[in-house]
Amino acid sequence: MKTANQDIKPVTTKINENGNIEIGGCDLTDLANKYGTPLYIFDEATIRAMAKSYKDAFKDYPKINMMFAAKAFMTKAICRIMQQEGFGLDLCSGGEIYTAKNAGFDMSNTLFNGNNKSFDELNFAIEAGVKTISVDNFFELALLNDIAKSHNKQVKILLRITPGIECHTHEYIQTGHLDSKFGFDLTQLDEAVELIIDEYKNLDFTGLHAHIGSQIFEKQVYYDEVGVIFKELKRIKDKYSITLTQVNLGGGLGIKYTKDDEPISVYDFAKTLIESIEKHSKEYEIEEPEIFIEPGRSMVGTSGVTIYTAGSSKKVPKGRKYQAVDGGMSDNARPSLYQAKYTVEIANKPEVKELAKVTIAGKHCESGDILAKDIMLPETEEGDIICFYSTGAYGYSMSSNYNRVLKPAAVLVNNGKSDIIINRLTYEQLCESDIIPDRLN
Ligand SMILES: Cc1ncc(COP(=O)(O)O)c(C=O)c1O
Fold first, then answer.
1. Which of 47, 65, 71 to mutate to test ligand 1, by most ligand atoms within 8 A of the CB atom?
2. pTM for the structure as a whole
């Protein structure tokens, strides 16, 4: 069965009676008028459809814990939706922990990841009641044990390993290959286990964690990932008589940004994992463990679009036509960071058939600030509302105030209603943290 991550557009997208693009029952040109642009728009129905697909796909494996990877899009309203859908949160910074707590999220359904968690962040995680910490390295093992001891607590931990699996995605978002900044190399695992047994008495070692990368389209890498981890479970059981009961398989399921992308469905993803879990549990004679997954991009990516207003345009003699918009790399870093491609339409004329080649340029002082290169669109004009699909993940969360632009607002749309979930930054807020030291006066 097809799932929403396999479509480019949110599930409620249509062309309405005015000939404009509508999402969640809201005309994108009306949203542009009401809230201004650039604007992030999130379709609640698509987020909930993805949550439902994950739950259906794993219903035959009751020991599953679904943790939304908050890094993909973290805001208080999203925490609320995830809680309503029965998802936990995978958090990876003090700020994400704070946001979850501030949103009233059930912290007993959270875990904390990251390759350089600070003393303050680990301390805060324990105080805030984060359930499990995935420990990345030797330094963190010692640090966390000290902190746990000072709280007189046993802290549940997973050890993050690098399973040595290369997936075919952009090198910046591969994480599970051997030479990676994340996790323990498999050859270091025994030393970590022995330290826990002999010295780190405040750590309760319950399982292993791996995350092999992001925007993954292949099934085989997930199958193999389970195999590598389960082999380690068996080895640890035989060598140290420790039965690990939890395995975190990370996130990474891809979404469709352009027609050339062919991500697998959530059902195929789940089937692959469950088959591999069953096979390897039997082969290694271990009880099927509690499984965690941490989907980020696939949960929110397709639900989000960004709209911009077209401004100046330029036809370079013997060169390209550039259409500039009122945002750019500050609201979407992905095109300049890893050449990410998007599907683009003009919200106020989606049905015009005659197309011309155009490059959509951002407004920032960087030649690399190009949002979409050489795409085919109806002739663009000043005032057009340009819609970029599948920007729901790693758009807002990677945004910046580069050139002191204001971070855009985000709205949640559903059944013809739109609600602000993030206010547009104001000029006052932009300068709020700036200080001129007295000696400069
Ligand atoms: C440890 C971990 N888990 C989960 C994710 C989410 O990945 P994705 O958004 O591709 O599902 C990431 C992303 O980088 C990650 O580092």
1. 71
2. 0.96
